[in-house]
Write a structure and sequence with these properties.
single chain; 220 residues; alpha/beta; Zincin-like; 3-stranded mixed beta sheet; 21% strand; globular; binds zinc ion
């Protein structure tokens, strides 16, 4: 069966490129001069690859479902699962394996709670590693980013997504070390990765976790 592209985007490029988006739809980028038959021939040739991507996305979508804020709902915090318990409490509080929430807590309030947790934790972790690595950063900012965990600007301003609070601590620490390494080296060249490894020897495990759990950014 032929896979029909969701859209074909013609741009000033010389090759055809395929992307399977998060809905499992095929997006084709092609040069202006590529005819439909050339494009479809290319798509047919890549059918196995497309099917594989679609299967992977389907599995991911089933695994990473949006957070439901209700009694018994599950929230990931620091890499561990907490069960939501709606209680007579003033504010969101972790308690054992539970996350206690006041009645009528909504997603905005839960995100705000994560943001505050992230502000404290990240300040602490960034300062800890900056001192150990003997680097100085300019500013520490928290973001709501769903596509990147952290960044280091040209002027060494650091930014981290509060969504890192959902990740295991060693993953959060790795992202901190990664961005701090960018203070002295803005590229991802061999020297950069050597510095990462020197300061965080198990970084490959964390990289792998991030790759596998990318979709966690989209659940809240
Ligand atoms: Zn980087």
């Amino acid at each position: 069966m032929m896979i029909e592209p969701k859209s074909i985007i013609k741009t000033r490029r010389r090759t055809i490129a395929l992307v399977v988006n998060s809905n499992g739809e095929l997006i084709v980028r092609a040069p202006y001069y590529a005819t439909r038959s050339i494009i479809m021939e290319f798509v047919e040739h890549k059918q196995d690859w497309i099917t594989k991507q679609q299967k992977r996305i389907e599995t991911e979508n089933a695994e990473f479902v949006p957070v439901v804020i209700a009694q018994g709902g599950i929230i990931q915090y620091g890499g561990s699962m907490y069960t939501i318990d709606i209680e007579n409490v003033e504010k969101i509080t972790l308690f054992g394996n539970y996350i206690l929430m006041p009645k009528n807590t909504d997603a905005t309030q839960l995100r705000q709670w994560f943001l505050e947790e992230a502000a404290r934790t990240l300040k602490h972790r960034v300062d800890f590693y900056a001192e150990r690595m003997q680097v100085e950063y300019k500013k520490l900012r928290l973001s709501n980013a769903k596509t990147r965990w952290g960044s280091c600007s040209y002027y060494n301003g650091l930014s981290f997504s509060w969504r890192l609070m959902m990740c295991p601590p060693e993953v959060l620490d790795y992202v901190v070390v990664h961005e701090l390494c960018h203070i002295k080296n803005k590229s991802h060249n061999k020297g950069f990765w050597q510095q990462v490894e020197l300061n965080f020897p198990t970084y490959r495990n964390s990289e792998q976790w991030l790759k596998k759990n990318r979709k966690i950014m989209e659940i809240l």
